[in-house]
UniProtKB/TrEMBL annotation:
Record keywords, A-Z: Cell membrane, Membrane, Protein transport, Transmembrane, Transmembrane helix, Transport
Cell compartments where the protein resides: Cell membrane
Protein name: Biopolymer transporter ExbD
Major localisation: membrane
Membrane topology summary: Single-pass membrane protein; Single-pass type II membrane protein
Keyword Protein transport: yes
Family: Belongs to the ExbD/TolR family.
GO molecular function list: transmembrane transporter activity
Length: 201
């Protein structure tokens, strides 16, 4: 009876090289997604030397209950009306010091954009999706006003200007040109969005 031949040997000497090359290929070509998160300015570590007195009319209060209902300035409000209400508050210009504002100059509302503060408070049982949606609407009010002024002054969209300025791949010459423009628009409508302590009721 003839003797069976064994299975041919596979030369595995180069397998490690191939695996290593594949690993390098995937590391180089894969893009890693990073979460942008919420853009918020943390309070300074050192408390201010003098007590800051804020008039109640310069605070726009937004409360979210556990059912997702909005109580804005002590009145129930539909989410679709929130952005317009916040915009009207931010550019109310009661003291007349803002020459670019188009507000009603209501004496009972905010004095000017630099003094206007939006205070957001939510219930502990508020859905996260509702909380984020409300945040987006409030930030959207700031962005709408900033975009309007960027169009007027520079004929550009502010959100695109800011994104290009913050992009590390933007050439330094372009970033230097955008720096003063972005800061000027931000100073015109500073984003003062305060988050009050969460309610347990």
């Amino acid at each position: 009876m003839p003797r069976r031949k064994g299975a041919p040997e596979v030369n595995a000497g180069s397998m490690a090289d191939i695996a290593f090359l594949l690993l390098i290929f995937f590391l180089v070509t894969t893009t890693i997604e990073t979460d942008a998160g919420l853009d918020r300015m943390l309070p300074p570590i050192e408390p201010p030397e003098e007590d800051v007195i804020i008039k109640q009319k310069n605070i726009f209060t937004v409360n979210i209950n556990k059912n997702g209902q909005l109580l804005v300035e002590d009145e129930l409000m539909n989410l679709k009306n929130l952005r317009n209400a916040a915009t009207a508050f931010l550019e109310n210009n009661a003291d007349g010091s803002c020459n670019y504002c188009k507000g009603r100059k209501d004496a009972a509302s905010s004095d000017n954009p630099t003094k206007a503060i939006i205070s957001l408070k939510n219930d502990r049982e508020t859905k996260y999706s509702t909380y984020i949606t409300v945040q987006n609407e409030l930030v959207g009010a700031y962005n709408d006003l900033r975009n309007r002024e960027a169009q007027r002054l520079y004929n550009q969209d502010f959100t695109k200007m800011e994104a290009e300025y913050l992009n590390p791949e933007t050439p330094s010459a372009v970033r230097d040109d955008l720096k003063d423009k972005v800061k000027r628009i931000q100073d015109m409508f500073p984003q003062k969005l305060s988050e009050a302590e969460t309610s347990t009721n």
